[in-house]
Design goal:
Rossmann fold, 10-stranded mixed beta sheet, globular, 739 residues, 39 strands, alpha+beta
Amino acid sequence: MIIYEHQMPSLFIIIALGVAAAVALLSAWYYLKISIPTIILLILRFIFLALLGWCMFLPEKKEVQTHMLKPRFIVAIDTSKSMLLSPKPGVISNRWEDAMTVLNQPWKNVISAECDIDVYTFASELGSKTDFQTLQTITPDANSTLIRESLQKLMDRYQGQNVTGFLLLTDGLDTKEAYDDWANEPWGWPVYTISMEPPEAWEVEGDLRVDTIKTPRRVTVQWTTELKAVISGQGTKGQPANVQLFKNGKLLQEIPTQIPSEGGSREVSFQLEHPEIGVFTYMVYVPPLPNETSTNDNSYSVSVQVVDARNRIMYVEGPPRWESKYLTRALQANANITPICFVRGPAGKFLTYGPRGNLTPDLTDEQLASMKIIIVGNLDADELGETRAQNLLKFVDSGGSLVLLGGTKAWGEKGFMETSLKKLMPVKRLGKTPIEGKFAAVLTDSGSGHPAFAGDPELWKVIPPVLSVFPNASLSAGAEALVAAQAPEGTHPIIVVQRYGQGKVVAVLTDSLWRWQLSPNANKTKPYQRFWDQLISWLSPTENELAPEQLEIFADREQMYLGEEVSLSARYGRKTSAENQENQPEPVVNCQITTPDNRTIPFSMARQNVTTAGGKTFPGYAVKFKAEQPGLHKAIAVTDMAGKKISSDEISFFVKPFTPESMPRPVNTAVLKAIARQSGGKFFENLEDLNNTLSSLSFAGREEESVTYISLWQTILIISCLLTLLTIEWAIRKWRNMP
């Protein structure tokens, strides 16, 4: 098939060729005598013009070939130390030997005839692609297993490809995840799992341990928060475990729990009151069982910093919706704030997310005085109430920040505009009914330079689309549109900001901003989380409200095992003019780590760029630390400027005494069964069932077309013909002494 790829209009090329032919004909008529050589010259010239014109159309030959792509079957095998465990060493084979036996079954030959089999190893990281022969030379030696992260990375890597199945060979022991509910997430392909050892083969020693603690590490004074401890064990013989909570070494609470004799985990919750500001150490301790030999994992400690109200955020929403679901998650994922979220549930009662304490969604002056940012969702004028609207008006005028998340009721005829909030609105009027579709979202000139969209400029060049827009918004004086939606009838602002009094106001004129969370690259770029993190940072106290000099310290993890490293980063900022900053020497920042035995060890922090979990990079200081003893470690950053000592707030991290990879315990079949069930795969109790099922799988290839373009005019033959025609014409002219 021949196609033409010319960019110039065809009519223009035809006219140009016609003019050239006419000029050649008229020139021959007026200046040459009619003779056989003249006629030959004209013929040669017309052939040359015709061939040149054909070249100007840029002809190409298009060849389409159809290929049958074989589907892929993925095998992932765990290479951590726990794969060497056996219930009865020397009598029962270990898990790695069982995995090798699985890989040497006939199913492999059956599937490889129909599919491309890709083999990966994983432990603390997902390994590169390997093969079955290389697996025979590997010895499992990793100190941790990240099953969930490895599965997610493989799903991302093969997204959009024809994967027909996934064989997961692991013992189901994820050393990072405190809970097993992650296995109930949806998975993209059928995952097949098998138990690596006979059921009830273990005769384990009685053991209790504290796996992890979850509680906010930075809370606000007078708030009530929750501390959740995961207690695990086996061989309890029905004996109850009395879980104790200590605060700064004093017994605070006791709660009994029961661990199944065959093994398992239980979550124990404690309510924490925070009446005063400071840093407090909480330790969860479970007394060992009689004859328990491993007792160095029976306690777990965290430090909690109780601060003032600088980072308090309240979110009040109407009935649950997609926006409230993802925004609540985004707020809870922000480690720099302590949010409290109220969502209206059945019978008008509010559901609470976060440490509520004695707070209510009434938005009284007293409550607002302890807040810095308020987010109001889809409430109409009656639900919001004029009293709360007036309180919010005074709150913003006095320096607070307000986000009007809105929705169909909030921006409708009886919405925010019918209350006192109309005075602070960034928009004077807008359409009461949203238009729906799929609208591309773009940054405006103001948005490109706004802190809410700072960081990686390439990320914000492609903003995920929105599905609804409240149209025809007319901006108030002083308001700026940061993001606009491109609809067929025009461009509509969807995120508008302005200052009111001493505070800031943000209006979101779409109820589908949550779609950013579901964009194709959301797992990597996280546009929804980054937008809210950076917007909240902009809405938080400005530099003028902060201390003249600030030093902050961060840790890249809150718990680790003995022998692993933690990366500590610090950031120093000062409020001075640009000229004074140039004259100020760079500070020398040190990190002081207090070990569990109360020794304080100083470390010098090297100056380098630090990247946060959200992807933002800033100049700072960093040092790596490898703990030499288990327990709670505390760290602060310190520097000296002009004889004045500046210290950061204290942070903490907990070092576990040993990796669970070396702890004898059975395969976690509950996780393996859940992964298989949620993915549409199957869990196998024995090797024969696995071999029969995998050998009987049906596979369907996928046709894929490949297109090849071959240029017909950029060839030696065509160029030679053009040159030959010109040469012959020139020779005839010279032979006949023609002009």
